[in-house]
Amino acid sequence: MSFDPAAPSTTAFVDQLLSRMTLEQKVGQMLQPERMAITPEEVARHHIGSVLSGGGSAPGANVPADWIAMNDAYWMASMRDEPGRVPIPLLYGVDAVHGHGNVLGATVFPHNIGLGAARDPELAERIARITAREVLATGVDWTFAPTLAVARHLYWGRTYESFSEDTTLVASYAAPFVRGLQGDLGTDSVIACAKHWIGDGGTTDGRDQGNTVISEEELERVHMAPYLPALEAGVLTVMASFNSWNGVKCHGNRYLITEVLKERLGFDGFVISDWDGVDYLSDDPAEALAMAANAGIDMFMVSVKWEQYLDVLLQHARSGVVPMSRIDDAVRRILSVKHRYGLFDRPRPAARPWAQHSCLGAPEHRAVAREAVRKSLVLLQNDGDILPLSRSARILVAGKNADNRGHQCGGFTVAWQGTSGNQSIVGGTSIWEGIREVAPDAVLSEDGSAADGAEHDVAIVVIGERPYAEGMGDIRPPGTVQPGSRTAGQPAPLAPYGETLELRILHPEDLACIRAIRAQGIPVVAVLVSGRPLIVDTELEHTSAFVAAWLPGSEGQGVADVLFGDHPFTGVLPFSWPTIGTRWPRGYGL
Ligand code: BGC
After folding, report:
1. How many domains does the chain have?
2. Is 274 tagged catalytic?
3. Is pLDDT above 50 for 483?
4. Mean pLDDT across the chain, nearest whole number?
5. Can you give the CATH number for the domain in which 548 is found?
6. Catalytic choice (279, 446, 465, 470)
7. Within this chain, do residues 118 and 264 fall inside the same structural domain, yes or no?
């Protein structure tokens, strides 16, 4: 299924629409404000083409009924039929990057790094199909996924959004993911968005939004290659990347967006800018917008200042700073995508077949997420074959991530930076809750203080990172980054997660917990919840078995499935694992 905007019906349809649209209407289509910054009335008045939810931005009580009501209101506004107005249905976009994680009660799948460990593109396709349905249940049509970043530095806070450091493995997920989301563009499909174009995973020191300094040959071979199967599968949208390539911001790079992506690779959908990503092109907002539009950005994602964008873009079109041919090309692409997706034929969101469907968070969806958890686990150490555990063993469960669904879901879940605790993740099971179902005599002691050598045969200690997203997950050893400022090409860096990949320094409480249990002579099985490999040499010295669980999502039961031997360990490392001593290569797993 390859997208062909030149299909006679789409071309004729879009031509006819374009011929009736005023410049104001065209420019309105090119904007995507954040929901908090725009009302339905303003959508109608300014002919806005799209609205998004930024990470964690949700209407009302964040349940499907609220989402449907919101989407219905925006859609009705966009379709208002008044003299001189061309009704064009609005597209709504979200970050459903590991399931529809923004929404309470949705199924939350492992982040991409875990899917990379599973080496199962067919499973990823099923996950994407399920995600599409849960997204549709809320009246949304578009998800900013899949991320096709090839993360080359573990310091990067977005490492977990990357399937692997290996281009070939990332590329193997691209088409299945797009197929799962977009299907045949029927009523059970959503629009996919391959992101971030391009080189996001290759920045110096893994700095989020940083500079990727590599040759064009390497850019193509490492970072561009996964986009080819996505384009082949007909991905309808692509998001520009915050990073620079050899000092030039991707958002303003005409060569990469227009000449390479659109002309050479033949991408005929539309390109959306990332969150205010245009602003970093120049200190002068008008110049920045001209650079981005002329580089080939078709739709602008804006947090707040959408009215300024509208005004400036109108002025640029009138003065010719942005040629009318460019405006028409952008709008043609946007309308073609809407037409190909069938948006013009769909009724209001509340009347669509999947609206408020009970599939959101349904048991059969959660079963697939649990399967994904099982397949993503990587066994790194198993001294004396301590695993699998016996259900009748006297088990102590400890560690700050043992009973914390928020932590096991990671970033981009309910809130942009993720959440802490069980309450915010509606449905699912923590890792502890999963263990308790299998081994009813197991006891929980988060800090390990209840450990007693006379009472416990073995301890499962669930350790690791707290949730984070984007630059707030970066690791920045002192001296690796110059202080940023909000000047041209220099987004202000977010406060990083830490200064080292060494877990004993990042989270000393984990080692303290393990040691307290070892002091009682109890062998320890460690389960690491983290968005990336961490240096765990010291923890390894004190543990018999060590399992990398990545960010497994809402279905913690999948961990117990494997720890107790109901299913085998099959996952292997999607990233090589740094250690001070020996290094585990990519592909390793017992
Ligand atoms: C991220 C994108 C995301 C967008 C919308 C940005 O900060 O870089 O990946 O799609 O926000 O939430």
Report:
1. 2
2. yes
3. no
4. 95
5. 3.40.50.1700
6. 470
7. yes
